[in-house]
């Protein structure tokens, strides 16, 4: 049995294995603080409070562990990056854009007109009205910077923003940067998720708890559908209820719909439910998720002019404008995608990967939460019994069970995945500590290799 940790000495994890100061209570989870950054600085120079106490995030823990695994190459189903290239028509568009003088220079801060127009054309049919490409769309450096711009635009020091757990972890620091306070409302999985396959749609948001979390400082709520990591597509009725509560209390809705081309059940956009809800909604999109190019960093927000103009102002000050040639390529992608049948194909292909990969859980006698959208699946590991004498390094030993399960899979089977308690506050981590998140946006042979390796779990299943 491995499980000793000497190889960590040369992969940087000892630095991460420092004692954990427990300064903040409502943070995502207890983390390990970096101490190295300050060491190289002059005596009087201190990092800001925001980043000086930066805790190690799940991505670097898992990536460093994956690099240190004795089983190489690792099958990496952790982070949601694609294991294959964008379609040829999008790649060719990017290559073509690089040859054009104007595409290698600054774009207008709000984004290239061609991309704004392509998005307005693509999204107007969903909204059943003509979206104004000049006033109602802003292009950002990935969805992430778009959301940061939205928080910068509307959140003042001390304002509250409601986030449903589990959450995409970037929301938290993005809300805190302008001084916002995150208020968490947990979603809960079906109680018997360890004994039967469930649907991601069964994760429940308690609307009364959501409304009860609203105070006179609440400015925004962040919604994510299709959801990462659950894979839930919020139903029309749920969105209607959320929307009506926001209208009643006059709260902005930041609707993160980056997986909006990957849904396997009917998908509703909250901004389409009523003019009053639309007036409060900023919808977030990501070219990286749509066209398999997360590294291009092209995203956007769509919403009423009265909201978009402030997001655009924040975006201008944060990064001025976004990558020009890749905006152009994304525009061409949208112009051609529909007629090439790309969106349908992309859904079909991802659903195929999902279903094929999930056969492994039935084979092993484990259960999973069948996603309604996106490319993540949560599998339930309650029946997996970790060897009692297994030695975990402190960075994992001090964390919920899912971190230990993820560590074990990396070190013993050579498969990386993400422990989802990272997306809960510590007091709610128990909700997800038996689950692990796997990204299936990988080549088919990689998914087959993952399944083969996961068969090694059989002897640990009770
Ligand atoms: C729910 C969610 N929102 C936003 C993003 C970020 O998108 P982008 O890469 O366009 O910044 C991600 C990426 O994983 C995500 O999962």
Automatic annotation (TrEMBL):
Give the organism the record lists. Trichodelitschia bisporula
Q: Which family does it belong to?
A: Belongs to the class-I pyridoxal-phosphate-dependent aminotransferase family.
In its UniProt record, a GO molecular function of this protein is: pyridoxal phosphate binding
Q: Mind naming one GO cellular-component term on file for this protein? A: mitochondrion
Name the domain of life.
Answer: Eukaryota
Cofactor dependence is on: pyridoxal 5'-phosphate
SUPFAM superfamilies per the UniProt record, alphabetical? PLP-dependent transferases
Q: What is this protein's name?
A: Kynurenine aminotransferas-like protein
Keyword terms, alphabetized: Aminotransferase, Pyridoxal phosphate, Transferase
Q: Name one Pfam family in it.
A: Aminotran_1_2
| Domain Aminotransferase class I/classII large: start-end pairs | 74-452
């Amino acid at each position: 049995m491995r499980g000793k940790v000497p190889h960590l000495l040369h992969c940087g994890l000892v630095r991460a294995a420092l004692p954990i100061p427990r300064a903040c209570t409502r943070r995502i989870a207890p983390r390990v603080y970096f101490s190295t950054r300050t060491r190289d600085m002059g005596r009087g120079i201190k990092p800001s409070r925001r980043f000086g106490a930066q805790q190690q995030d799940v991505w670097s823990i898992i990536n460093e562990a994956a690099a240190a695994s004795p089983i190489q190459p690792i099958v990496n189903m952790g982070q949601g990056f694609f294991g294959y290239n964008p379609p040829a028509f999008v790649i060719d568009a990017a290559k073509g854009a690089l040859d054009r003088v104007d595409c290698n220079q600054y774009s207008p801060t709000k984004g290239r007109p061609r991309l704004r127009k392509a998005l307005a054309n693509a999204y107007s049919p969903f909204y059943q009205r003509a979206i104004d490409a000049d006033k109602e769309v802003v292009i950002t450096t990935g969805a992430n910077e778009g959301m940061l711009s939205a928080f910068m635009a509307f959140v003042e020091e001390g304002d509250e923003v409601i986030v449903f757990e589990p959450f995409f972890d970037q929301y938290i620091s993005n809300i805190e940067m302008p001084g916002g306070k995150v208020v968490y409302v947990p979603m809960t999985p079906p109680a018997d998720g360890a004994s039967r396959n469930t649907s991601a749609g069964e994760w429940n948001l308690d609307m009364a708890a959501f409304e009860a979390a609203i105070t006179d400082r609440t400015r925004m709520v962040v919604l994510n559908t299709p959801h990462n990591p659950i894979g839930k597509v919020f139903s029309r009725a749920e969105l209607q209820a959320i929307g009506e509560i926001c209208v009643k209390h006059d709260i902005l809705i930041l609707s993160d719909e980056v997986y909006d081309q990957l849904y396997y059940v009917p998908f509703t956009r909250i901004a389409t439910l009523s003019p009053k809800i639309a007036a409060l909604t900023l919808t977030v999109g990501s070219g990286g998720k749509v066209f398999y190019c997360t590294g291009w960093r092209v995203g956007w927000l769509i919403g009423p002019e009265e909201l978009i103009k402030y997001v655009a102002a924040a975006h201008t000050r944060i990064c001025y404008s976004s990558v020009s040639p890749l905006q152009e390529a994304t525009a061409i992608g949208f112009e051609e995608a529909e007629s090439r049948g790309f969106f349908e194909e992309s859904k079909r292909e991802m659903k195929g990967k999902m279903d094929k990969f999930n056969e492994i859980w039935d084979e092993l006698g484990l259960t999973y939460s069948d996603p309604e959208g996106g490319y993540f699946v949560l599998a339930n590991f309650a029946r997996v019994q970790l060897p009692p004498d297994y030695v975990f390094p402190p960075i994992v030993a001090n964390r919920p069970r899912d971190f230990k399960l993820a560590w074990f899979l990396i070190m013993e089977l050579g498969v990386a995945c993400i422990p989802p308690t990272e997306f809960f506050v510590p007091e709610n981590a128990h909700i997800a500590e038996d689950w692990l998140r796997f990204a299936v946006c990988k080549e088919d042979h990689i998914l087959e290799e993952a399944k083969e390796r996961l068969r090694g779990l059989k002897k640990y299943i009770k």
